[in-house]
Amino acid sequence: MSAIYTQKNRIKLIIVIVALLIGAGTVVYTNILVQKLAEREQQLIDIYAKGLRFMVSSESDDNTVFIQEEIIEANKSVPVILTDGDENVMDYKNFKLPEEISEEKKARLLREEIAEMKAQHQPIVVEFGEGFKNYIFYKDSKLLTQLRYYPYVQLTVIACFALMAYFAFSYSRKAEQNRVWVGLAKETAHQLGTPLSSLMAWYEYLKYTPKFENEPIVEELGKDVRRLEIITERFSNIGSVPVLKDENILKVTENAISYLEGRVSKKVRFTIQADFPSHMPAKVNIPLYEWVVENICKNAIDAMEGKGSIDVRLSLAGKNFIAVDIRDTGKGIPKGKLNDVFLPGYTTKKRGWGLGLALARRIIENYHKGKLFVKWSEVGKGTMFRIMLPR
């Protein structure tokens, strides 16, 4: 099942190619049928012309009646117009003209029909000798026209239903994934609640015990307990609408980096700078935004194997967004994997669920209405992630 999920783009491409082949086969086969039917209609008009010529030249009343009833009148589908040598209408067949129409308007409509027939087929000339001739103009029957356009109408309808099914399936799958995310987050917050309460009690006990007075480890323990509270709050916020406020984005980012800096290898060097005034606000939910920054930085630290530099740069991106670029000096990401890193379950580490970047993108795009993507990456040189936040 995992292999199918990771190959979903290739599978989609195969399905599209197969659908196109089926559609092309349908069109080709229908066109063959249209061609055969068109040839039959051509033969019918040829017989019509021969019958007309024979009827005019025949001296036998029986033959004339046979030609009139069995050949000429047998044409019930192909629209035809019979004219003299000057293209004056003598007779027409298989046309629905408006009732109670004037002769002038009828003549105009028939002339328009003749122009359309000329565009489709060359008229058939019926010669009677001594330079006397008639023209038979004709066009495709209604059945032939319908058959010619039927496959395209059919493919359009199928495509519309396919799109509707695709969007319905995507929405259903996304909704199911959201329920899984929310359930997992709520359960995690619930599971953290009990040991966190115990840790808070132990911290309060140590804090007010004279034996541990002024012990730095107690203060650090307090920071970690407060951090666990923030993490629990983050998981609790998943699935609910977070409150976004105008926050000093530089200060919030510095706080997130500062917390990490004291808890990772000293061989990892952090720098942070902003290309705008230090008080510039952005609409964020602080616990969730800090979570995103931490996830990206922790992945960077893993990619650098605990040694290298992480540079954070904040800048304006147009009038409506602030860009937060986080660049590391790690292994880099192959070009074919730039989008895969955001897929749930994707990981290059021996341990882990591969949910960090998937959650980070969900937090930025679903909750903050921003964007998270790989702006640059080169194997052996590093990677830069960009967070786009609304101002």
Quick structural overview:
It holds the Pfam family HATPase_c. InterPro entries: HATPase_C_sf, HATPase_dom, His_kinase_dom, Sig_transdc_His_kin-like_C. This protein is of the alpha+beta class and 391 residues long.
Characterization of the model:
- This protein is an alpha+beta fold and 391 residues long.
- The protein has three domains: 2-140, no CATH class; 169-240; 241-390, Heat Shock Protein 90 (2-Layer Sandwich), CATH 3.30.565.
- The chain has helices spanning 2-6, 8-57, 61-72, 103-120, 142-207, 216-237, 249-261, 286-303, 356-367; strands at 80-84, 89-93, 124-127, 133-138, 245-248, 268-274, 281-284, 308-317, 321-328, 371-378, 382-390.
- The strands form three sheets. A five-stranded mixed beta sheet has the order 6-8-9-11-10. A four-stranded antiparallel beta sheet has the order 2-1-4-3. The chain has a two-stranded antiparallel ribbon with strand order 5-7.
- Strand 1 (80-84) and strand 2 form a beta hairpin.
- Helix 5 packs antiparallel against helix 6 (216-237) and helix 8 (286-303) packs antiparallel against helix 9.
- The radius of gyration is 39 Å and the shape is rod-shaped.
- The two termini are 41 Å apart.
The name of the CATH superfamily of the largest domain reads Histidine kinase-like ATPase, C-terminal domain
CATH architecture of the largest domain: 2-Layer Sandwich
> How many E-type strands?
11
Please report the number of helical segments. 9
The computed structural class is alpha+beta
| CATH class category label of the largest domain | Alpha Beta
Radius of gyration: 39 Å
Sheet with the most strands? Answer: 5 strands, mixed
Mean pLDDT: 81
| The CATH topology of the largest domain | Heat Shock Protein 90
Helix fraction, binned, reads 55-70%
Overall tally of domains? 3
What characteristic shape results from the CA principal axes? rod-shaped
Distance between the termini: 41 Å
Q: How big a fraction of the residues is strand?
A: 15-25%
Q: N-to-C SSE series?
A: HHHEEHEEHHEHEEHEEHEE
- Largest sheet strand order: 6-8-9-11-10
Name the poorly predicted regions. 1-5, 64-69
InterPro entries: HATPase_C_sf, HATPase_dom, His_kinase_dom, Sig_transdc_His_kin-like_C
Domain Histidine kinase: 187-391
Catalytic activity: ATP + protein L-histidine = ADP + protein N-phospho-L-histidine
Keywords: ATP-binding, Kinase, Membrane, Nucleotide-binding, Transferase, Transmembrane, Transmembrane helix, Two-component regulatory system
